[in-house]
Design brief:
D-amino Acid Aminotransferase, Chain A, domain 1; globular; alpha+beta; about 250 residues
Length: about 250
């Protein structure tokens, strides 16, 4: 499709005006960033893989009744999505100690948590997306109490779905982040799942070896980032071969 007006460019995606009112074209870049943009690289094929993985997951969530902004995949790098007002929060669900929770609480990385733990972060790059409490959210009006209830309930449902999906592929779902947006259906406003769900936004470990198959490979200079993403796609049945270059070169197809 012909490109339309650029609306926004983030670290990993570009949003363009959609072909119909209320729609947006979401383009997945090959850029990889970490530490609030301090570390940056271009990884050939990453955007293609994230597009396909996120599509696969969003369709699965829609099948179990979770509303998302995803409409359809347009090509190997672009999705048509529903325009929504993004709520400035990241909802993080943790099943296994890793990353910041290990540092904050002194829990050994890899230790299973007693139950899934939900955390909230304020989406503000210049502040480093600080962790916040529900009290902050209520006080500053970032989301209404009923929206928080809906987002947390949805996040836990997503956790159940993803845990089963990845376990079936021999992958442990360590943690993940979600973003939500507001849309109007007639005169009724509701909250839907937005952004993406991919190895960029999830920690995924091989169940036998604990090998990292996610963005931590880039954060920690482990190498083979796109190969790890491709392995996730292969195990989910999205790719038939672990060949990132072949996928990247095929981005003109639908």
């Amino acid at each position: 499709m012909s490109r339309r007006k650029k609306i926004y460019e983030g670290k990993a995606k570009i949003l363009y005006e959609g072909p119909e009112p209320g729609t947006i074209v979401q383009y997945f870049k090959d850029d990889a960033t970490a530490f609030n943009g301090e570390k940056h690289a271009t990884l050939e094929g990453k955007g293609v893989l994230n597009n396909r993985i996120s599509e696969h997951i969003m369709l699965g969530l829609q099948r179990i009744g979770i509303p998302t902004h995803f409409i359809k995949r347009l090509n190997m790098r672009e999705q048509l999505i529903r325009q929504c007002e993004i709520i400035p929060l990241e909802i993080v669900v943790r099943n296994v100690a890793a990353g910041s929770i290990s540092k904050r609480l002194g829990i050994e990385e890899g230790q299973p948590l007693p139950r899934p733990i939900v955390e909230y972060y304020f989406k503000k790059d210049e502040l480093g997306d600080p962790m916040i409490s529900e009290e902050h959210i209520n006080a500053f009006g970032w989301a209404a109490p009923h929206e928080m209830d809906e987002m947390v309930t949805t996040a836990l449902r997503v956790n159940d779905f993803l845990s089963g999906l990845f376990t079936g592929a021999g992958i442990r779902l360590v943690d993940f982040k979600l973003e939500f947006g507001r849309v109007f259906d007639g005169e009724m406003q509701r909250v839907i799942l937005a952004d993406e769900i991919s190895p960029d936004s999830c920690r995924l470990w091989d169940m036998e070896s604990n090998e990292k198959l996610d963005k931590d490979r880039f954060r920690r200079d482990l190498g083979n980032v796109t190969e790890a993403y491709a392995e996730v796609a292969r195990r989910l049945g999205i790719m038939r071969q672990n060949n990132v270059v072949a996928v990247a070169n095929d981005e003109g197809t639908s």
